[in-house]
Amino acid sequence: MVSGRAMPDGSWPTSKGTVKFDDVYTIKSGEVYDGKMKTYERSNITCKGQEESGTSTAVFKLEANATLKNAIIGVDQMEGVHCDDNDCTIQNVWWDDVCEDALSIKGGDASSVSRVLGGGARYADDKIVQHNGLGTVIIDGFFAQDFGKLYRACGSCSNNPAQRFLNIRNVYADLEVIKAQRVDPNVSIVMMNENFGDEATLHNIRVKPGAENYTECSYSRGVQKGDKPLILGNGPKKPVCKYSMDEIHLVEGGAKQQQQTVGTVRPANEVQQGNDDKEKDNKDDKEVSQQNK
Questions:
Q1: Where is this region: Disordered (predicted)?
Q2: How far are the Cα atoms of 80, 126, 137, 275, 290 from residue 83, in angstroms, in the given order?
Q3: What's the pTM value of the predicted model, to 2 decimals?
Q4: Where are the domains of the chain?
Q5: Each residue of 228-268: pLDDT tens digit?
Q6: CATH topology of domain 101-274
Q7: Which residues fall within 8 angstroms of residue 119, CB to CB, at 6 or more apart?
């Protein structure tokens, strides 16, 4: 039995109003910001697809040990939410239409733990959660619809080589809807860097397949900023992609041909295309982090 949050049912929350910020809103260390299920966006920024920007184009910036909960991130923004000092909590936050990426996690050290609890994101051309910092990310009870990667351990950051850990469970990935302009037709729920010692643990993943190839977990050879990571393979492989196929549950109604692609390995010389892992400007808690080490 998998502990943690409930599995999402694929529904989307109703907004209770709209709030527009002229500048990125900073949530201070130790503060809990309750968005009361309103939609938050920027008054002076529109999405420009995969154009790289930084914290200044986000809606929220969280300091270490800050919490954002019960919020919907609207269309008018570029960088969604930034956790620039790691060790933040994102609880019941929904991204209505992901721009460059939804959540960027940066900074921290090997003992840092950031959590994404509940919530969801949709229409991501590439990444939903970009992990540039150190330590562990926990994703529990999340709904992801139409995306390139739900989580990416940065494959080309200037702080590489850096080891990163992921614990992801009770996630519903709906790939049947295709609205985003995906930079790579091959979808990865999780992508790690094998040569950096990254470790991902997957439990209770529900997948509704679509018309394009996907894998639950893929792994690359990470590089430093300026180079492109090389895709090495897909599917269960310890310690980089720790799970069994019993943890993957296909939802009825998905494309039958996709069942054959789960856990298959792509050619070792396949280079990830598109805007993968661009580095932007510059608590299962600590116990989980220690277990993963």
A1: 254-293
A2: 10, 19, 12, 20, 21
A3: 0.87
A4: 16-83, 101-274
A5: 899 999 999 999 999 999 999 999 765 543 433 434 433 32
A6: Pectate Lyase C-like (2.160.20)
A7: 90, 91, 92, 93, 94, 141, 142, 143
